[in-house]
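Contributing: when you submit paired examples, paste them exactly as shown. First protein:
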Amino acid sequence: MRAITPGSADLRRYSRHLLIPEVGLAGQQRLAAARVLVIGAGGLGSPVLAYLAAAGVGRLIVVDDDTVDLTNLQRQILYDTADIGAPKADRAAERLRALNPQVAVDAVRARFDAANARELVRLADVVVDASDTFETRYLVNDACILEGKPDVSGSIFRFDGQLSVFGAPGGPCYRCLYPEPPPEHLVPSCSEGGVLGVLAGIIGSFQAAEALKLILGIGEPLVGRLLLIDALDARVRDVRIRRDAACALCGDAPTIGTVGTPARREPPARTVPDLDLDGLDAALAHGAIILDVRELHERALGEVPGAVAIPATALEARLHELDTARTYVVACRIGAKSRWAAQRLKEAGFGRVYHLRDGLLALAARDASFDLF
C-alpha cells in the first residue's frame, strides 16, 4: 500500500480515523504498514476481514481451505448465494479488494496445519484466530508463542462467545487457560449445536478492534482477560486469567518447542446414563453429589451449591479426591465436556456415575435463584 501523505486523496477515505486523537495520521500510517494473518474466513473471519480491510490495514493474509456452503450464509456475511461452492479464501479476497483497493490481500487456499503454521505466523504482525476447532486453536496458539506474535482468539457457540489476546508479553497463552484439548468429538460444533448468526458479527468485531488496538498501541487489549458474552441475555463479563508459570508452552520451564497436531482420540463407548432435571432431583434426594467439571474461569460466573468442583482438565490428576463409594452426577455448562468426564470416572472404577443432560444452564433456566450467566 502506498504511503498516506498530507494532501493525499486517501485522507478522505480514512477521515473519521484521522479525527481520533489516538489514531490520527501517524496511526493510519501504522495501519497501512501492518500485516495481519486471519485464520478462517467463516463466521468470525468475515467481520474481522471486512473491518480490517475498511480500516486500511496494509496487508491481509487469509487462510481457509473450505468452500462456501448454503448453511454458511446465515452468518458468513462476506458471501452470497452465488458464491456457493466457491473457495472462501478466493471469494473473500475479491470482496475485500472491492471494499478497499488500497489493501493487499493474499488468499491462501490451504489448511492451517503443523507444516505451514510457523511460516504463516512469521509473516504477520498480529494473528487473528477465527477458526472453529480446538485442534486449530492450539496450533495457532503454539505457533504464535514460538514466533512471538499476539494471538487474537475468539470462539462462538449458540448464544455464547468468548475472546482474549494470547501470547502478548507477560500475558497468558491459550494453554494457560486450557492446558490440554478436550476430546474433539465431545465438543459440539456450530454445525451440531447451532449458533446465532449475529453472534459471529459481535465477536468478530471485537476481534477486529483488538487487532487494531495492538497495531496502534492504544487502549487496554484483552491480555490476561477473557471476555464472555451472552447474546441471549445481553450480558457481558470480564474474567481475569493469568500466565501459568507451569505452562508447558509459555511457562518458566517449557516442554513444548514445536507445533504439532494434537493426537486424535477415538470416541469412547457411552456407558454412563443421562439424567434430566427430574432425575437429578431424585438422585440428589438419595445422596448423590454434583461433580462440577467447569474450568475455573467458568465457575467465576456462578457456583453450584453443594457441588464438588474439579475442572475437566485436572480430572485425571485429581481422581484420588473422589470417593468411589459415592454417587456422582457429572455436569458442566452445556453438557459437552462433562460427558467425557463422566465416562472417565466410569472407566476409573466409579460404579455410580450419571451425566446431567443439557448441563447446568438447563438447571439455571429452571431455577431462577440459581444464577449461572
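Second protein:
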Amino acid sequence: MSTISRHTSLHPVHEELGASFTDFGGWDMPLRYGSDKAEHIAVRTAAGLFDLSHMGEVWVSGPDAATYLNTALAGNLARVLIGKAKYTMILNEDAGIIDDLIVYRIAETRYLVVPNAGNAPVVAQALKDRAAGFDVEVQDASADTALVAVQGPNAEAIMLAAVSTEHDRSSVTALGYYAWTSVVVDGVDVLLARTGYTGEDGFELFIPSDAATTIWAALTAAGEGHGLVPCGLAARDSLRLEAGMPLYGHELSLEGTPLQAGLGPVVSLKKSEDFVGRAAFEAAKAAGQGTTTGRRLVGLRGAGRRAARAGYAVVDPTSSDTIGEVTSGLPSPTLGYPVALAYVDVAHAATGTELAVDLRGKAEAFTVVDLPFYSRTK
C-alpha cells in the first residue's frame, strides 16, 4: 500500500523552480533544483536557501520546564541561558537514541525543542508521556511552523539585506553561534537562530507556515548579488557529511548509543536528574563502550576515486575480516576525494589506521582520519 508524502507550505514554490522531489521522513521534499554539486559549492562559496519545514517544533512551557527537560533529555538544559541553544538527545531506557535535537531557551520557563522530520511525532509523544508529574505544557507546533535556512559565507550579508531596521541589523550581527534572536522580515515576526547543518555560517528562520512563501521571496530578493541559490536535500546531505555531522537513521539510531557515535560528552552526568536512559548509559560507559569495547564512529578518507556507500562492509586489509560498516559516504565536492562515516571495531578506530571498504567485491583503500573532513576557515 502506497503512502502519500506530506507537503510543506513551500511545495508550490519548489515546483515552480523545477525541483526534483524525494520522500524524506514522510515528506515530499526537494532533492535538487539542478546540479547537486553546484548547489553544494554555492553553499561553500556563497549561500544556499533551504526549506526545512519538515522538521518538528515542540514548545515546552511551565514552572518545571528546566527540571522536566533535564529528566526527559540527556543534556543539561537547565544551564542553557535565555537566548542560547544546545545540541542534545532523547534516549530510551537502553540509552538508544530516539533522536538528536536542538533545544532553544526562549524564556526562564519556556523552551523550543526541534526534532528531526521523521522522528517529530515520536519525539512529541515521548515528551508528552514524560511530562507526567511535572508542571509543564508540551505543545507540538510542527504543523503550524515553517523553517527556512540560509547557509554559507554570505549568509550574514543576506540577512542584513532582509531586515529593515537598524535594531534588527544589530541583532543579526551580534547573534552568536547556537543562539537566537527576534527580527522582522517583510512584516513577519521571525525567530532567527544562528545554527545549521552544513559546516558553514548560517541562519534558520522559524516562522508561521502561512508566512513561508513571503519569507522565501524576501530572502531570495535579499540574496540577489550574493550568489544565493535554492538547495535541496542532496546538497544538504553532502554538506553535513563533509562537516562530519551525523544523520539520524544512518549514524544515529535506537540500536546505537551516544558513546558509540562519539557523542558521549553530549550526555550530562553532572546534573542530578535521573534522565531516561541514564542507568544504561552509565553502565555502557563503565564497560568502555566505544573506547575499549564494541564499535565506534570514525571518518574514512578514500585513497582512490571510488566512494564508499551506506551499508558497505569495512574490512581489515591484512586479514580480510569484516570489522565495520559504512553509514554514509560520497565523493566530496569540496575536497576532491571520497569520504565516509563508518562504525568500526575500536581496535581499528585510531586515526591513521589503514582499512579497506568492500566496494561491490573489490577492496578499496581507506584511512581513518579525524573529523570533520571539512572545516570553514572563519
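If you have annotations for the second protein, write them as plain sentences, like these:
Residues 83 and 352 are 40 Å apart (CA to CA).
The chain has a mean pLDDT of 97.
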